[in-house]
Amino acid sequence: MPTPKLVTISGSLRAGSFNRMLLREAVHAFGPAEVVEADLNLPLYDGDLESSRGVPEAVHVLADHLRNADAIVISSPEYNKGITGVMKNALDWISRVKGPVFKNKLTVTMSANAGRTGGETGQFMLMSCLVPLQAHVLPGPMLCIAGAENEFDEAGKLINDRYHKVLTGKMEALRAAAEQ
Ligand SMILES: Cc1cc2nc3c(=O)[nH]c(=O)nc-3n(C[C@H](O)[C@H](O)[C@H](O)COP(=O)(O)O)c2cc1C
Predict the structure, then answer these.
(1) Residue list, ligand 1 pocket, CB within 6 Å
(2) What is the pTM of this model?
């Protein structure tokens, strides 16, 4: 099989985001791939904007990356026990693009948060939001990094072997599914 195309999506725009760090670890665990980092810095969804100017170019760029993906990994914090506004906004825009974008796309989700549940509630909500988009979210143990500020070293590497093992399992399963 040619080198798989892996799209990474961070639900946090922050440069120092722990979810971005987790995605870098996920890419490493996935192995050789053509990696595209999705840009969710999009205008807020507004029906008037859509009616007057159409779906923004940045959304089409994002949709093209997703359509071309062999595998997708999403890492997002929860905000106030729900999906981040950035993540929801991106999914709302994607749902306005003509034709399937996420349909049957092999996807894994994960989260890193300051709190003690590691964003589990927000991650469940993320998975619910992916249902109408028909993403193929791989089953398996959830990866929820709790107390994220203590779980990465200065190089952005995961410290805890337990988390690393779950991450590796998820990314190996994603690769195996993408190569089938
Ligand atoms: C608006 C907002 C809401 C938050 N809500 C939660 C929450 O519900 N649960 C939690 O564990 N942490 C919450 N946090 C703290 C985040 O877990 C923490 O900022 C984390 O580092 C965000 O992820 P990032 O590092 O990828 O940006 C919240 C932070 C912000 C800014």
Answers:
(1) 12, 14, 17-19, 77-81, 112-115, 119, 148
(2) 0.98
